[in-house]
Amino acid sequence: MSRPPCVATLTRIAASGRVYDETDDPVAYVISANLHRRHLTTTQRGMVAAKLATLKRSDTLKKGDKNPDRSNDPSVADAATLLQVSEKTVKQAKQLIERGSKELVQAVERGKVNLNQAVNLVKQVESKSEQTKILSS
Fold it and tell me: Closest Cα partner for 96 from 54, 137, 41, 40?
């Protein structure tokens, strides 16, 4: 049973009062609606962009498909533009997420450690447990 038209319309109205167009990209809409309200540093926006750039859209996945259509997956350039950071920042953040310890990634996300410092640490110290020890000291 489908929803009554008035309910369907109400579910598309954002808190700002803007009607969400179902043809819009929902991720881009949420980010644009919230980015200006948050006081995120460039590093923090870069971390969000890196996670976005590694996001695999569930609508492109089909069960058992060995070659899923990835054309709708966000690229590094798309994520950088959306979060207003450079592609270099997104690539550095991706590198940190892939090679850094969980604690180091969290410290960068919270703004406790600069992204450049964290990436340099990851390049110098491969062991995640050693990274955590250095971070704790």
Answer: 54
Question: What does DSSP assign to residue 75?
Answer: P
Confidence of residue 9 (pLDDT cuts 50, 70, 90): very low
pTM exceeds 0.85: no
The phi, psi pair for 117, rounded to 5°, reads: -65, -45
Q: Give the pair of three-digit tokens for residue 53.
A: 């750039």
Bridge partner list, 13: 19
The predicted structure's pLDDT at residue 17: 55
pLDDT digits (tens, 9 = 90+) for 86-107: 999 999 999 999 999 999 999 9
Compute the chain's Rg from CA coordinates.
19
Angle between helices 87-99 and 102-109 (to 10 degrees): 150
- Cα–Cα distances (Å) from 58 to 13, 55, 68, 70, in that order, read 23, 9, 10, 10
| Contact partners, residue 90, CB within 8 Å, separation at least 6 | 46, 49, 50, 53, 76, 79, 80, 83
